[in-house]
């Protein structure tokens, strides 16, 4: 399973990248706003840091403008995946840009039929938003499972990029279902290492080690 980091925070990306945990990055207009940075500048820095796909989102709502924005974003670097919303205009943009050989991430997916359309439009990635479905009392993991089954039924190559990940459990469930990629905030990725029994076990080992009076170095 690939790990993408859902942030435009360069320091956070760099920290995880050092451990080899960053297979790609996703950003969106809210994350750019949070970074306080210029979209073109910060996206270029991210692309220079990370080898994998870096999603940069268009902000126009009409297809022609989306396509123009997508082409401009794609000029930033080879590893840009142009992110478009799952609207009719977004699907048209996806079809055009993927036919030009560009990576496209179709975002804001909340239904299996939407994911089917994205695959047919040639999307590289489909981003179903788990957390936002959970927020309205719909189990986001059911959507991941439905898309997995539909894509496997017909052999679509579009990668399922489980997004709006809020908890470590979302990561585990996405992996069990077979999502190709998860994108999660740095804090969630770091929490994957946590377990109270690891902490308790280490405390006990350290206490016993101190009683031996030994040192390794
Ligand atoms: C994905 O590409 C989105 O940027 C992101 O996962 C949205 O997450 P949120 O619902 O926590 O804002």
Description:
There is one protein chain. The chain is built from eleven helices and eight strands. It has 217 residues and is of the alpha/beta class. It has an eight-stranded parallel beta barrel with strand order 1-2-3-4-5-6-7-8, surrounded by six helices. The radius of gyration is 20 Å and the shape is globular. The mean pLDDT is 98. It binds erythose-4-phosphate. Erythose-4-phosphate (E4P) binds at residues 6, 26, 28, 107, 127, 129, 131-132, 163-164, 183.
- Helix/strand/pairing class, anyone? alpha/beta
Q: Give the biggest sheet.
A: 8 strands, parallel, barrel
Q: What is the CATH architecture annotation? A: Alpha-Beta Barrel
Q: Say what oligomer this is.
A: single chain
Ligand kinds? erythose-4-phosphate
Radius of gyration: 20 Å
CATH-assigned homologous superfamily? Aldolase class I
Return residue spans where pLDDT drops below 50 for at least 5 consecutive residues: none
Question: Kindly, what is the distance between the CA atoms of the first and last residues, rounded to a whole number of angstroms?
Answer: 38 Å
**Mean pLDDT over the full residue set:** 98
Q: Approximately how much helix is present in the residues?
A: 40-55%
Shape: globular
Measured by DSSP, the beta-strand proportion falls in 15-25%
Per the CATH scheme, the topology name is TIM Barrel
What is the CATH top level name? Alpha Beta
Order of H and E elements? EHEHHEHEHEHEHHEHEHH
Count of individual helical segments: 11
* DSSP E strands, number: 8
Q: Any idea how many domains?
A: 1
């Amino acid at each position: 399973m690939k790990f993408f980091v859902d942030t435009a925070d360069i320091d956070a990306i760099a920290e995880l990248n050092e451990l080899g945990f960053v297979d790609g990055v996703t950003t969106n207009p809210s994350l750019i706003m949070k970074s306080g940075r210029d979209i073109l500048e910060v996206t270029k820095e991210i692309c220079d840091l990370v080898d994998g796909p870096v999603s940069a989102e268009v902000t126009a709502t009409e297809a022609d403008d989306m396509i123009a924005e997508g082409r401009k974003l794609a000029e930033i670097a080879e590893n840009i995946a142009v992110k478009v919303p799952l609207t009719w205009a977004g699907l048209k943009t996806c079809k055009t840009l993927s036919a030009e050989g560009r990576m496209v991430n179709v975002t804001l997916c909340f239904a299996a039929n939407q994911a089917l359309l994205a695959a047919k439009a040639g999307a590289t990635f489909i981003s179903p938003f788990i957390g936002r479905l959970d927020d309205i009392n719909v189990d986001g993991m059911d959507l991941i499972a439905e898309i997995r089954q539909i894509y496997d039924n017909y052999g679509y190559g579009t990668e399922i990029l489980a997004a709006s990940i809020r908890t470590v459990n979302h990561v585990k469930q996405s992996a069990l279902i077979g999502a190709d990629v998860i994108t999660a905030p740095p804090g969630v990725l770091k929490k994957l290492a946590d377990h109270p029994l690891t902490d308790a076990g280490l405390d006990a080992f350290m206490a016993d080690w101190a009683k031996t009076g030994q040192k390794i170095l």
